[in-house]
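Long-time lurker, first post. I've been practising inverse folding by hand and with some scripts of my own, and I keep getting stuck on stretches where the structure tokens seem ambiguous. Below is the full token string for one chain I'm working on. Before anyone asks, I'm not after the true native sequence, just a reasonable design that respects the backbone. If someone could post their per-position residues I'd love to compare against what I wrote down in my notebook.
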């Protein structure tokens, strides 16, 4: 007896349901906004998506029922975030398969914002954009990561590197420890997984990276440039961190 005969959902129907969930423009806009890894209020998401309060309420109910987002209450306020890295992976994947949006006339500020996101940004909880790809590829060249079949695994030397730099200190690590994530602007892999999350958090907490505008964008500080040179032998002043 097949899964459909037994009344169980087939893989095809599951894919169809997932596709339908993200096919709605408002739900897609909400998930894209939440890719910065932060918690948003429904009001902030409503403004970002440009919809009414009732429309946003229905949107969030649908996403939460589907397990794509979760919400927490603090006092009188409700905060919404992605349900986890697995949802972020789906959103990033959809960004890849959908390709670049149609070109349209935009102003200088929009061009600069787009360039900053391409150069360095967060992909949910890890480093993406040209910087994220440059870090991952440098780690492969230094044998800290092993790249095979579009996936990453951690070498013994890589494990020692993470621990000796204090990146994993005080962290609860969940599987997968390392994972390759296809970057939607660079079309190459950046580092995801719990070690990728730990690296991003460490660099932000130590001031090597700072969050900037537009939302999700990251800026490398002078201390960060020095850290990358000393610990990874990566000079972002000469690295081609933007895909042209």
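-- Answer (accepted) --
I ran through it position by position. Result:
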């Amino acid at each position: 007896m097949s899964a459909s005969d037994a009344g169980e959902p087939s893989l095809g129907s599951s894919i169809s349901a997932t596709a339908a969930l993200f096919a709605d423009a408002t739900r897609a806009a909400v998930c894209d906004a939440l890719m910065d890894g932060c918690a948003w209020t429904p009001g902030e998401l409503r403004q970002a998506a440009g919809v009414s309060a009732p429309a946003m309420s229905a949107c969030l109910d649908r996403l939460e029922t589907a397990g794509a987002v979760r919400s927490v209450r603090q006092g009188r306020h409700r905060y919404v975030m992605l349900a986890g890295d697995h949802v972020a992976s789906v959103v990033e994947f959809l960004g890849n398969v959908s390709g670049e949006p149609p070109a349209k006339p935009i102003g200088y500020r929009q061009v600069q914002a787009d360039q900053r996101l391409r150069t360095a940004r967060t992909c949910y909880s890890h480093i993406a954009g040209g910087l994220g790809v440059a870090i991952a590829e440098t780690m492969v060249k230094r044998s800290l990561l092993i790249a095979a079949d579009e996936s990453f695994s951690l070498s013994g030397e890589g494990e020692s590197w993470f621990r000796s730099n204090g990146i994993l200190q005080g962290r609860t690590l969940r599987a997968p420890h390392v994972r390759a994530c296809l970057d939607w602007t660079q079309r190459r892999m950046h580092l995801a997984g719990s070690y990728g999350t730990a690296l991003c958090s460490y660099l932000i907490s130590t001031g090597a990276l700072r969050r900037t505008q537009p939302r999700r964008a990251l800026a490398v500080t002078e201390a960060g440039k020095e850290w990358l040179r000393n610990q990874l032998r990566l000079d972002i002043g000469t690295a081609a961190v933007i895909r042209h």
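A couple of notes from the structure itself: Residues 54 and 156 are 52 Å apart (CA to CA). Confidence is low (pLDDT under 50) at residues 102-106. Happy to go over any region you disagree with.
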